Amino acid sequence: MANRLRDKIGSGGLATVMSAHNPLSARLAEEAGFDGVWASGFELSAAYGVPDASLLSFTQHLDMTRAIIEQCSIPLIADLDTGYGNAVNVGHVVGAYARAGSAAIVIEDKIFPKDTSLLPGGRQELVRIEEFQGKIEAARAASIGHDLLVIARTEALIADLGMAEALRRGGAYAEAGADLLLIHSKRRTPDEIVAFTESWSGAIPLVIVPTAYPDLTEARVRALGKIKIVIYANHAVRAAVTAMREVFAAIRRDGGIHEIDKRIASVEDIFDLQRVAAMKAAEKRYLR
Q: Could you tell me the domains of the chain?
């Protein structure tokens, strides 16, 4: 899987990656034509009904990641937050995700436990550069024998530490062996990300998550030249919440499902997404 992601960015293309919190949302992302899926910590936390604040365990996230990889044929990028602890933890965790078949992992330079990046008033404390370099090196060592991309994520702009610090950290993380650098911003316009990209002279390409600045289109991203992956990091769960609220409200308003039934996916559509036909074909072939 990682080779497909490497090939996409190595050929000069822009890889588009959609969030997923279970195999069904991953299949819908694949059906829509995205290049990969993002096993989102934010989305899985939301699916469990808890804040994205390092509350879910490593095994909860890994189990769902494995389930997605088993049921989806496009590459998966695993959102590992801070790596669940220090560099030793990172090595253990990254090894597990590599063996599970992840195409790439992302670790960020915040202190564990963390607050989600776009939370107003959230704790956005960063670890020392040297400490995070050790985490990258541990991730790199754990990926030996697996075609895994190690993506370092700096939250310097999220923490309001300024452009110079973000560039300094990005350069240090590239030196430590990261394959790509994810630069994140909470600004409502893309100006900060554009300025960072234009100033970036590092040897590795960039990754962005345009949640806060949705006006930055893929055409503009391509024109910037240095960004190779764009991650739509929480749109699966947000779309699901929107749709469920609308449908549930309509059922209560109408006093039944007689109106809404015509507007939602059919049971047969769900059968197709579950690959029921393949199961029935297997039954026909093997059950005796």
A: 2-234 (3.20.20.60), 241-286 (no CATH)
